[in-house]
Amino acid sequence: MVRQPIPVIIVAGFLGSGKTSLLNHLLRNPQGARIGVVVNDFGQINIDALSVAGQVDSSVSLSNGCLCCAVDPSGLDDLLAKLARPSSDIDLIVIESSGLADPRTMVRLLLGSTNPRLGYGGLVEVVDAAEFDRTRQRHPELDQHLRFADLVLLNKTDRVSEGDRDRLLELVRELAGGRPVLPTAHGRIDPALLFDRESVRQRRETARQLTFDDLVTDDHDDCHEHLHAAYQSVEFTADEPVHPRALMRFLDTRPAGVYRMKGQVHFGVPGHEQKFTLHTVGDFLRFQRSRWARAEPRRTQLVVIGSGLDRDRIREDLHACLGRPDEADEHSMLDVLKFIRS
Prior knowledge:
Layout: E1 6-12, H1 19-28, E2 35-39, E3 52-56, E4 59-62, E5 67-70, H2 76-83, E6 92-96, H3 103-111, E7 118-128, H4 132-138, H5 142-148, E8 151-155, H6 162-176, E9 181-183, H7 197-204, H8 212-216, H9 221-228, E10 232-238, H10 244-252, E11 258-265, E12 275-281, E13 284-290, E14 300-306, H11 311-319, H12 334-337
Parallel strand pairs: 1-6, 1-7, 2-5, 2-6, 7-8, 8-9
Antiparallel strand pairs: 3-4, 4-5, 10-14, 11-12, 11-14, 12-13
């Protein structure tokens, strides 16, 4: 089984927006995943709660396998290569960008990586609901950051009135230009938004006693249900082949609120009958080609994840992508092949 690239997520936002709260929440609720973290200053990371096993130079090794490293962005690729080495057994890497840094620089560095073990996991922009209007006045570039993000968290909504919360949600969604926007408090989101929890579970599921992760998790069932209610997922399965050009049109004009898409696609085009694994985050798109298992049915199975999704429209649009191209239309696969990552 070929291991999927490790998703690398960039968390950006101006000072005080709640990036560290989000990071601490993920570290305390890893859902069985081993998380590597790159930060500019790990003094505020809740390391004590995670039982520090040791500290060497700019990195610490935590009992749940996390690594926290303070680095300059210029050395990002080298650092990520260390975190992504097979012996680290990392499932997810989170980069906490400086509050004054341009997140686009971090994204360009990440997308320029040639490390096949790394994959783009998205840019998450955290904004402070209580200070949003004042922050926007001091930093007018915030509007651009919102449009560039793959997911926006309107954080600290517990510190504003319900009327202000609704007003800010509408405004931020308008500024974000169709990007999914989630209201949060204390940076609490369901980690399943950021990585494929099921694949992590399958990799790590063994007969075992309770681990430190099990004991430290602070999300009770009712809290988890509340977090999950903030976003939606849409499942789509089809035995009929998908027309590659139709699917690419869907991906180019995907509905508002879509954050991630993942799954396998069966095109059934002569000469291209392999399994194509699809991964999207925001506007980022990648296909990975592999062989079908001997008894594996040739079918398309996709999951669309986001906020405020029109489920019926998404299913209708995906269903409209079905149809086998004729042999004369094999060139339509070129639209897909340019996004292949071996």
